[in-house]
Amino acid sequence: MKAVIQRVTRASVTVEGELISSIGFGLMILLGVAQGDTQRDAEVLADKIANLRIFTDSQDKMNLSLLTTGGSALVVSQFTLCANCSHGRRPEFFSAAKPDIAEELYEYFCKRIKSAGVNEVLKGVFGAKMKVDLLNDGPVTIIIDSGDLKK
Questions:
Q1: CATH code for residues 2-148
Q2: Which of 55, 69, 78, 109 is the catalytic position?
Q3: 56: annotated active-site residue
Q4: Which terminus of the chain has a smaller tally of CB atoms within 10 A, N or C?
Q5: CB proximity list for 65: less than 8 A, separation 6 or greater
Q6: Does the pLDDT value for residue 150 go beyond 90?
Q7: Considering all CA atoms of the chain, what is the largest pairwise distance in Å, rounded to the nearest integer?
Q8: Which of 80, 93, 109, 126 is the catalytic position?
Q9: What is the DSSP secondary-structure string of 88-141?
Q10: If 0-12 CB within 10 Å is exposed, 13-18 middle and 19+ buried, where does residue 114 land?
Q11: pLDDT for 28-79, tens place per residue?
Q12: Which one is catalytic: 69, 79, 126, 141?
């Protein structure tokens, strides 16, 4: 499971011109579910992200987490994070989980990050063509792969 997390001052998702979700201060989380990912991957990734100290304190040091700041999370499923671009010019997505499994783990991740203590967790629409708008704060953008975390 891969996540691209961005510290934001605002973020929103629109589908077919309709605003679906919108947050202020917090994290925009793009989540890719790969074949072989399990609930354990979602658990370690959600816990890591909720506690990751990437928000600045009064001394302008990255010392605070989403939990300590009370920020929100906007989670958007993005299978393209599982792209393989090693051959040719067109990415292939064979390593992405099948949609039914991916949706189940995406929903589980959202529940897990909420149960970790994140105050507000909003979502995009799984499988929809979405427009994502955000204002990256910093900019701070971090990529995390659950396979790199101790399980």
A1: 3.50.80.10
A2: 78
A3: no
A4: C
A5: 50, 51, 52, 53, 54, 55
A6: no
A7: 48
A8: 80
A9: SSS-B-TTBPPHHHHHHHHHHHHHHHHHTT-SEEEE--TTS-EEEEEEEEEEEE
A10: middle
A11: 999 999 999 999 999 999 999 999 999 999 999 999 999 999 999 999 999 9
A12: 79
Asked if 94 is an active-site residue, the reply is no
Active-site annotation holds for 78: yes
Q: Measured between alpha carbons, how far is 27 from 120 in angstroms, rounded to an integer? A: 11
Sign of CA dihedral 101, 109, 78, 87: negative
Name the residue among 55, 70, 76 with its Cα closest to residue 12: 76
The residue extents of the domains of the chain are 2-148
- At 97-141, the pLDDT tens digits run 999 999 999 999 999 999 999 999 999 999 999 999 999 999 999
